[in-house]
Specification:
This protein is an alpha/beta fold and 359 residues long. It has helices at 48-59, 69-93, 104-124, 141-150, 167-182, 200-215, 233-237, 242-257, 282-291, 309-325, 341-354, and strands spanning 15-16, 28-29, 32-42, 128-137, 153-160, 189-192, 223-229, 264-269, 296-300, 330-333. The chain has a domain at 200-333: 3-Layer(aba) Sandwich (Rossmann fold). The chain has 11 helices and 10 strands. Strand 5 (153-160), helix 5 and strand 6 form a beta-alpha-beta unit.
Amino acid sequence: MLDQHNDAVIDTPGEGRLAHAPADHPPVARARTAVIIANLGTPDGTDYKSMRRYLNEFLSDRRVIDYSPFLWQPLLQGIILTKRPFSSGKAYASIWNQELNESPLRTITRAQRDRLAEAMAAKFGNDVIVEFAMRYGNPSTRSVIEDLKRRGAERIVFFPLYPQYAGATTATANDQAFRALMKMKWQPAIRTVPAYYEHPLYIEALAKSVEEAYAGLEVEPDVLVTSYHGVPKRYLMEGDPYHCQCQKTTRLLAEKLNWAPERIVTTFQSRFGPEEWLQPYTVEEVARLAEAGKKRIAIMAPAFSSDCVETLEEINEEIKESFEHAGGESFTYIPCLNDQPAHIEMMAAIVENELKGWI
């Protein structure tokens, strides 16, 4: 078939010869379109060196910690990266995928890639490549973009898997993609997928996961806690829309479930550092609920597209312990959407919309 530039005749997804090129011209990959689903990242192991390398990359990101490097880096390289790799490594070890020797986040994101690739192949055949990348750790965003370019990707849809936009998540993922382009002589065209916190299929997938979880319980929980990853309150004051988008996600979910507002609450987890973060804090709110007589709760994490250390370890251990210590009796964690069919259907619909004009 003729490619989009009408200068090559290539019938396979691999390499071919330009139609009017000399016989000794090197093979050229057929022009294709690619999709990259991008997640936060993961250490390569739970040992001290792997954890320190990962945490150093993560906590050195000015989108995540925006303090002056002259003040922050001595503290980070000294006290924090001396002690924190041990505690973080222990947390990761408690959830580590021993069979594949990797974190659940990498396992799940790969599965999402596989399912999305199947959906794209059913729709577009071999014309769309689907890969996954991490903002921190491996596979790195830069390595994936460079590999796709070698494979003929001239157009890339870059899809940060963060339903709600935040500078510390969506923006830094996009930053890293553009940094990769800055190193390339021949850049592919790129589109970034916007936040999808109010997308009907996203809300529907969340509601379905709640309904399925509740159907398996003998007694319905008194309250559903939607726990979002926190950010400093100062970021909200400086214009970051994350807090508002989280609140709207919860409201839309309650409406989809046809619930009264008091049946669902919004909280924020994973504080770091001394300053005030978005409130209420999940670990404190679940204790307050238990003390107020809400002895049965369910909790979910709508801001996470994949289960990870913040959900499998922090929610299921630290936050659960806080609830039970305050008198709570029944704690139900509802898993992230992961590679559930409804989630993949949503991802495919978003990608197809972003591919318009390219495919």
